[in-house]
Amino acid sequence: MRTITLVLVFCFTTFLPKAQTGTVSAVRSFVQQHRDTILSEFETFLSIPSIAKDTANLLRTADYLLHVMRGRGIDHVQLLEADTKNVPPVIYGDIKTPGATQTLIFYAHYDGQPVNPAQWAKGLDPFQPTLFSNALYKNGTPIDQKQLKIIQDEWRLYARGASDDKAGVMAIINAYAALVQSGQQPTCNIKFFFEGEEERGSPHLGEIIEKYKPLLQSDGWIICDGPVHQSGNKQLVFGVRGDAHLDLTVYGPKRPLHSGHYGNWIPNPALLLAQLLASMKDENGRITVKGFYDDAIPLSTAEKKALAEAPDVEKQLKEELGIHKTDMPGLSLGEAISLPSLNINGMASGNVGPLASNQIPTNATAVLDLRLVPGNDWRKQQQKVIDHIKAQGYYVIDHEPTDEERLQHDRIIKIIVDDDGYNAQRTPMDWPLAQRIIKAVKKTTTTPVVLQPSSGGSLPLYLIEELLNAKPVTVPIANYDNNQHAENENIRLGNFFEGIVTLASIMQM
Amino acid sequence: MRTITLVLVFCFTTFLPKAQTGTVSAVRSFVQQHRDTILSEFETFLSIPSIAKDTANLLRTADYLLHVMRGRGIDHVQLLEADTKNVPPVIYGDIKTPGATQTLIFYAHYDGQPVNPAQWAKGLDPFQPTLFSNALYKNGTPIDQKQLKIIQDEWRLYARGASDDKAGVMAIINAYAALVQSGQQPTCNIKFFFEGEEERGSPHLGEIIEKYKPLLQSDGWIICDGPVHQSGNKQLVFGVRGDAHLDLTVYGPKRPLHSGHYGNWIPNPALLLAQLLASMKDENGRITVKGFYDDAIPLSTAEKKALAEAPDVEKQLKEELGIHKTDMPGLSLGEAISLPSLNINGMASGNVGPLASNQIPTNATAVLDLRLVPGNDWRKQQQKVIDHIKAQGYYVIDHEPTDEERLQHDRIIKIIVDDDGYNAQRTPMDWPLAQRIIKAVKKTTTTPVVLQPSSGGSLPLYLIEELLNAKPVTVPIANYDNNQHAENENIRLGNFFEGIVTLASIMQM
Q: pTM value?
């Protein structure tokens, strides 16, 4: 008993700000008391392998969400389906609050990034959620059945989607449920909007919004996605970067060749790709593609001020990530992600490790991720990179090279231009609804709430402005060290449970 | 019957030079008549997955060879085992020829390069030998049971080791068997020497040779490995390049990061590796590592003359391989492989294709293959590359970086220095035994025999000179378009069968 009491005290002192309203306190107590059932439902949700493009499993996930939402008494629960075939649906539901004059739409997405299970830590299955006492990199150990009696803040739940963004879906649903079950009501009308194509660039989100426009009228959107500030403080984010991709393949010999018999004479595509990628950035990580930074609108004075006020976490981050010198010297992280970026998501040629063999590979490939800021047009940004590649002497095609093309050109590259790109979006911090959201979140914590002009990450939030004439504010809840998009994705349970409290407070703003 | 007769005529006209000795003719007839049984045994041999370092399967392969050699009446068939544990043995056997004054050792190796089955053509299993009517890239189709009655020259057998170098092992054994079974005898004493560690750099070959020195006395070695000339002509090769490797890993953040939240600020290891690799060669493929070409001894006048006399296959090769411009402009293939080389065998970071995700990977890795020519020392050559890497600002380590190292250095690279490297070897073309071997091979063909000063490939033949004071000459038999070391390795059956004839002629020189 002694141990349990101590642990409970520890949990509460971590969470409870010294002063708080009764409402926040009641919701937090409810969540505290129902951690086991909330967690158990979350684990079931995570065990459905709903990665982007896997429509069959995304539909299973959608069915599960319909069931969960109806169980919570949410009205008009339904699938919003695109007219295009085989598109994972949006899951919609709403709550009409008597007397309320404003409507908020709460957004999260239920699809996750692709997984390469071989890259996950030994024993981890991306679709068998597994609890550890802490992050693996902080030497967390597996949680056994006996420990489950007291579910702790520092525990991590490992699974694809654990933080990005099934946590968001579950936190929104539970925020509403916790309000109601602790004897309270929202003060606004609520609409639930859970997307299934975010991780592939939301190619049909516009189509679905257009189709269901009357249903999707609101005063503002709350986007629950992404991590809180690296300081651990809660954070509100007023914009997102745009995103676009390029898939590059350069060619060597038509068949793989013995590196002894032909090395030095037949060009090696891995070297060609290395030279091409190297030409895109200087040694300080500054992009050398002509005009790459040209269209970016500089930060406003208010945005610069907000960035300056955020806790300085750079030393902490560099230590945690094992980095001595960052790119873009002289720029803070916040300033760096306020610029358009170019990142190599992956590159491959031939084999490495135990499979390596003495060969000249037939091709070499890389995937580039371009992030955009206000002022950038995503197609123009892609074109700048393509023009740069052409300027390096490449003949650009969109198919495997024909024999004729091979014999006519020194350097051939296939570029697959991602059609699912989109532009950045930014909501002004002085928008009145934004000010009320800030206030609602501040109510839940005694530490400063960090206000970010923009996330480094991307969501197609421009659609909300363009098609619905509404504005979004992002309320992230995940820990920043969540490995989202990569192997060993995880959520810190304290973040998940406290996220429910944050969202419930917004529902009562 | 008509078809069969035509095919037989075709086979014979392809093979039979207009003038030949009775011996060559008798051996060729024997091989022609026994293609089916020779092929069937070869297929059984190929179906044992004997890739480098897989000691258990290499021992199974050795057992099979013991069985085959004893069945052919070869004497003293035995395993030559290193004192070091877990080393695949050499398989030895010999034939004492009454009255013979000279002894030749016939060398081949029974281990193959590693395989990545996923890279092989659909339906091909590297260890289920499969016949096609021609090379896959020449639109070959699978051979069915009915067609097996007439085994054709243009057929290809696909399997790991099909050409490199189980074909060599089988051709040597069958050359002796064909001589005897066509009623003839060798004119020299023969020793059989089949190695099991060639594809990992023969790290214990020296140890085995030292241990069995008395057994391994000879006048010369015949090395059956590698491809014939690209013109299809038979070829003798008087040297090999040396070989050494470097395994490079550069580091990014300790855990994979979301490319949106951190891209532009946390250095991307794929970009760092690209920049490093790009720094090693200029745009013409000339190596820019300081002093890389310095120690190489230039070709002699006789060697230059031999190169100039070889059929010009560059246009044909460039067309077949789909290459517009070769590296090292102004140099022929023969001249290019007479220089030391640096090849990227493979490189990898993050994921590409359907598994690509928006992340900054934690590391990027590449495997470099260095080939050496006479004058080069393999450790010095490795060191030149390491010094080049240091000159690019890298802190070089041989382990995963510690947290302390990460925080002290901008650029960290782990270099695994392969210990199994070795130097080049070259036998003078005017060595009397070499002249007799040339004569014996010329007897088997009416087209010119190509004399190459050196193969581009590598074998640790320096050991034969250093430890046994003997000299080797290489007699390759495989087709040049055999994909050795890569996916879809194959042998053209005409090459395999005619290789038996070539080797039998040398046994009777």
A: 0.81
